[in-house]
Amino acid sequence: MQEMELHVHYLCPYAQRALYVKAFKNINCQIIEQDLSIKSPSLYNINPLGKVPSLLYIRDGRRYKLYESIQVCQFLDSFPGPSLYPKIGDIIDPLAKAQIDMALKNEIDVFVSAFIPFWWKTPTEKDKQFALKVVSIANKRVQGGRYYMTEELGDVLTMADIALFPFVERIWALKESFLSEMVEGLNLSSLWQWYHRMISHVWIQQYLAPAHRLRKVLSLIKENKYPGLALPVTIYDQ
Questions:
Q1: Which of 59, 121, 135, 175 is such that its CA lies 20 to 30 A from the CA of 196?
Q2: What digits encode the pLDDT tens for the residues 49-85?
Q3: How confident is the model over 215-237, as a mean pLDDT?
Q4: 2-8 and 30-33: which strand pairing?
Q5: What is the 3-state composition of the chain as percent helix, strand, coil, each rounded to the nearest 5?
């Protein structure tokens, strides 16, 4: 017997990664929304860091706990159905996986590190220059709206696209306000083509974060009134 709980907040970009993979794979599992402003014992029981996504998987009575977003996504991708890692027959191509995992560590993680100062603090001039460089590299990677790993693997959707998307989702939503300095002066036509290609997928549309809610979250952060992502999520409609 198998059971699975996926603990999330719908406005957390890391949790969105897992939600997008769940939707892509059409996995039926219990989704539990967590209030990150008042973290519950149930969340800490799975993840001692009190973060999302956190996943509880019960198989034959044994409880397995996962709580790093990429590891949660990789586990979800192991379920039957289309894969975010190219396969040779029924087996994931180890060379393709190595290339994707290198991109996750050396490029997507760097993109996220460039994004963080703009979300959580007032970015320095050094932060701005670094972000412009990193965003430009991502734009080149998805030239013409192609998927992220096209240069290495052909134009196929991979885990790299899923890992990057929630952060580009936020830049797109707030590019003319809070996050304008991340993209100022850049021609990002390829990145925006890629973004629109991604949102054309029905499984992406299921868990998109509404722009007005993202704007509300970031305004609370900038006003020092942010206690953490709270519930119900509709409070960010105000």
A1: 121
A2: 999 999 999 999 999 999 999 999 999 999 999 999 9
A3: 97
A4: parallel
A5: 55, 10, 35
Q: Could you tell me the residue range of the domain that residue 48 belongs to?
A: 2-78
Average pLDDT over residues 115-142: 97
Q: Which helix (H) or strand (E) holds 102?
A: helix 94-103
| pTM of the complete model beyond 0.85 | yes
* HSE-CB of 186 using CA atoms within 13 angstroms: 26
Report pLDDT for 135. Answer: 98
* 183's tokens: 């993209």
Structure tokens at 191: 């990145």
The two counts, helices (H) then strands (E), for the chain are 11, 6
Rounded-to-integer distance, Cα 55 and Cα 7, Å: 6
The pLDDT confidence band at residue 183, using thresholds 50, 70 and 90, is very high
Sign of the CA dihedral running 147, 119, 127, 104: negative
Count of domains observed in the chain: 2
Residues 60 and 106 in one domain: no
Q: Residue 170 maps to which CATH number?
A: 1.20.1050.10
The tokens describing 77, both together, are: 């991708």
